[in-house]
């Protein structure tokens, strides 16, 4: 996204594979709808917008993306457009919605005291407003998203099933955790330290990955019947 030069291309990028606010008919009764989404700091209680704008400029990758308006303004515009898009879909059509950002607080991890500082990253994970829009449309049957780098069990909220199974980075994988712990390379698994261990035991890790990578792919997949 940082390479996109024109503001309008963020939501209307001209590529047939870019399904933002576009539908694809999957069957007579079901449509796939894509929407990028964005974030508005609403997953952090009592967030100071000015302070989080400052933090974003310090360490968040999106600081390289030039967009018009504040994050909350961008999110509201996206949610308004999503609502309009859903209103134009016949209520008899079931919708599978795919998005990147988190639409529900149920998928936000709040860390305890030891790792509490990581909670500030929740500000950039998604928006409650997006989830509120989806609640208005009972024909939105399935929502698939990621961005959390953490896999959750399927949850049904407001008659909609939510699926969060992001693939993540290699040092976050279940197979990486299993490799480190089963070989007693560490007493506990820490993704931030996993990269160093994997590099140390690179050849052994590659051999281990050959056996378990397919399982890792399956763990990150969402299979839906329509």
From TrEMBL:
SUPFAM superfamilies: Metallo-dependent phosphatases. InterPro entries: GpdQ_beta-strand, Metallo-depent_PP-like, Phosphoesterase_putative. It comes from the Bacteria. NCBIfam families: acc_ester. This is Calcineurin-like phosphoesterase domain-containing protein. It comes from Tetragenococcus muriaticus 3MR10-3. The lineage of its organism: Bacteria, Bacillati, Bacillota, Bacilli, Lactobacillales.
């Amino acid at each position: 996204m940082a390479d996109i030069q024109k503001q309008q291309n963020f939501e209307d990028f001209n590529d047939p594979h870019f399904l933002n606010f576009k539908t694809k008919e999957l069957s007579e009764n079901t449509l796939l709808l894509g929407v990028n989404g964005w974030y508005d700091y609403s997953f952090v209680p009592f967030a100071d917008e000015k302070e989080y704008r400052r933090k974003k400029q310090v360490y968040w990758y999106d600081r390289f993306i030039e967009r018009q308006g504040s994050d909350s303004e961008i999110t509201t515009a996206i949610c308004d457009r999503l609502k309009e898009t859903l209103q134009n879909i016949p209520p008899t059509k079931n919708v599978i919605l795919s998005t990147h950002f988190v639409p529900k607080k149920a998928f936000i991890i709040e860390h305890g005291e030891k790792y509490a500082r990581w909670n500030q990253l929740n500000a950039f994970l998604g928006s409650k407003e997006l989830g509120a829009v989806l609640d208005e449309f009972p024909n939105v049957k399935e929502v698939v998203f990621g961005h959390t780098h953490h896999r959750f069990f399927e949850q049904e909220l407001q008659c909609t099933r939510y699926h969060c199974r992001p693939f993540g980075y290699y040092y976050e994988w279940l197979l990486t955790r299993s490799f480190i712990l089963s070989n007693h390379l560490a007493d506990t698994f820490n993704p931030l330290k996993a990269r160093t261990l994997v590099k140390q035991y690179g050849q052994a890790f590659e051999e281990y990955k050959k056996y378990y990578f397919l399982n890792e792919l399956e763990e990150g997949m969402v299979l839906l019947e329509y």
